[in-house]
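Internal tracking record. Fields below are filled automatically when a chain is submitted to the structure queue. Please do not edit lines marked as system-generated. If the sequence contains nonstandard residues, flag them in the REMARKS field before resubmitting.
Queue: standard
Priority: normal
Entity type: single polypeptide chain
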Amino acid sequence: MDEKSVIREVKNGNSESFKIIYDKYYLKVHNYILGRLGKKVDAEDLTQVAFVKIYKNMKNFDERRGIFNNFIISNCKQ
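SYSTEM-GENERATED OUTPUT FOLLOWS
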């Protein structure tokens, strides 16, 4: 399943499909947060928090207006 289809599935309420996004972006998110914090334990905790936020905000992602990778990082910055 391609990324656009997975995003559509999650936006339509299929929370099982979010695991695909989690698996694909986990290291990117974790490394981004680790780079900002410098503490591995804190980065692991905040990575989980970031993915909860990403999941809750999926409905706001508009693929016509942005790149999904930027959406992911934007949610991590907040």
